Amino acid sequence: MPFLAFEGLDGSGKSTLMDRLEMSLKKNQIKIVRTREPGGTKLGDEIRQLILRTSGEAPTPRTELLLYQASRAQHVDQVIKPALSRGDWVLSDRFSASSIAFQAGGRAITEDDVEKLNHFSTQGTRPELTVLLDLPVEKSIERRNQREQKTGERADRMESEKNDFHQRVRDSFLKQAKQNPQTWLVLDAEKSTDQLMEILWEDLRRRGWVSLPL
Q1: Sheet containing strand 184-188, strands side by side
Q2: The whole model's pTM is what?
């Protein structure tokens, strides 16, 4: 069954689009498992706290990468592989492309090192489709600020990085998408959720994964 990963800068609308897709798939009697990284398991959620906390000792770039990979290995073994074996769809908010973007692009760790660790932690498990919600850094910051004002939710350690870090992350996502056009779908995250959902659903129909119109 299809394994979809949703990528993009914070505030790009991944969660909202995943909500809409989940609702539409369930309406079509399709079983799904929705998950996220870092996290997705009890141990992964504990690692998530270590990675994203804004107090205490911050991990070095290599430590950060290894923490993400530890969470991912647990995630693949306990959640993703079992779900795919059952014939369920898997929708993940971030996966291995985020390590390339954040740790290679953002932290300047070599892509080769990140790719090797990605392969080890996933044992070759890859999304059939990576959906990139592309958003300019300035718009990402604006949306995060609006969220903080509305909910009081403060930026985590990764979100609090400087603008040039997030620009490198965005550039890496776009580079990966350009290198893998058959398995990536790039969406303009400034479009409405309705527009994005129509484009995504049509892509899923083209791939033969769904048959009915939206």
Answers
A1: 32-36, 89-93, 3-8, 129-134, 184-188
A2: 0.95
- Give the torsion through C-alpha atoms of 27, 28, 33, 36, to 10 deg: -70
Helix (H, G, I), strand (E, B) or coil at 42: helix
Instruction: Tell me the residue type at 169.
Output: V
Is residue 89 within 8 A of residue 2, CB to CB? The reply is: yes
User: Peptide bond preceding 2: is omega within 30 degrees of 0, i.e. cis?
Assistant: no
- Rounded to whole angstroms, the Cα distance separating 107 from 44 reads 22
The whole-angstrom distance between residue 204's C-alpha and the CA centroid of its chain comes to 18
pLDDT tens for residues 13-68?
999 999 999 999 999 999 999 999 999 999 999 999 999 999 999 999 999 999 99
Residue 149 in tokens: 């004002």
Placement of tokens 């890496």 in the chain: 172
The whole-angstrom distance between residue 128's C-alpha and the CA centroid of its chain comes to: 13
Q: Is 178 left (phi over 0), alpha (psi -120 to 50) or beta?
A: alpha
CA end-to-end span of the chain, whole Å?
19
Distances (CA, A) of 161 to 10, 49, 146, 181: 12, 17, 17, 29
C-alpha distances out from residue 136 to 8, 11, 169, Å: 10, 10, 11
Peptide bond into 38 cis (omega under 30): yes
- The answer to whether 64 and 107 have CB atoms below 8 angstroms apart is yes
What domains does the chain contain, in order, with CATH numbers? 3-206 (3.40.50.300)
